[in-house]
Amino acid sequence: MARTRAKDYDDKRDAMLHGAARIFARDGYDRASMNQLATELGVSKALLYHYYTSKEALLFDIIETHLQELVEAVEEADRPGAPPQERLEGLVTALLEAYRDADNEHRVQLSGLQLLPDTQQEELKALERRLVAIFAEAIRQMNPDAFDSRPLLKPATMSLFGMLNWFYMWFREDRGISRQDYAKLATHLLVSGVKELP
After folding, report:
1. Where would I find the HTH tetR-type domain in this sequence (predicted)?
2. Per residue in 106-135, pLDDT tens?
C-alpha cells in the first residue's frame, strides 16, 4: 500500500523552502550543507532527505516555486483589453507584490539558476520566458509601429526587468516610496521612453 501524505506536508515543505532560501541567500549555495540546512531549519536530516533527495533538488524547487508564483500573479493581473499604460502598470504592480517577502527566493533565482543541470535550467528559463512574454506584449501595445519595424522590444522589456529585478536591493517597507508608487514610477519611465520612439 502506498504511503499517504501527511496533512501538513505542504506547510512543512513551504517552511523548508523559505528557510533554505534564506540560508542559500545568506551563505551561498556552495557553502550550505544538508547538515547545516537541517539544523537551522529545526528538522532532522532524515526528514529533510524525505522531502529532498539532494541540495540540488532543494535549489530547483526553491526557484521553480518562486517563478511559478510570479507567473501566476502576473497572469492573474493581466488585462489585455485595458488601456496599454494601465495594463502595464497592473503587471508591474502584481510583480512587485509577488516579490513581497520573497527577497531570498529572488536572490537565489538570480544567483543559483546557472548551478543546475541544463535540463532543469531550461525548465526554469521557460517559466522566465513566459513571464517576459506577458510584459513584452503589454510594452509592444504602447507603440506597435516602433517595435514591429525594429528589434527594440526585447531591449525595452529587459530594461523594465532591470528596474524591477533589483528593486529588492534598495527598497525598505515603510521608508520612502511604496511598492505601488514605484510601480507607477517604473511604468511611467518606460512608457515615456517607448512613446517617444520614432
Report:
1. 10-70
2. 999 999 999 999 999 999 999 999 999 999
Gyration radius from the chain CA atoms: 19
Cut 0.70: pTM above it: yes
Report which residue type is found at 39.
Answer: T
Q: How many CA atoms lie within 13 A of 5 on its CB side?
A: 8
Using an 8 Å Cβ cutoff, are 130 and 71 in contact? yes
Closest-CA residue to 57 (of 89, 94, 88, 17):
17
Whether 127 and 148 have beta carbons less than 8 Å apart is answered as: no
Distances (CA, A) of 136 to 131, 153, 154, 170, 196: 9, 7, 7, 25, 17
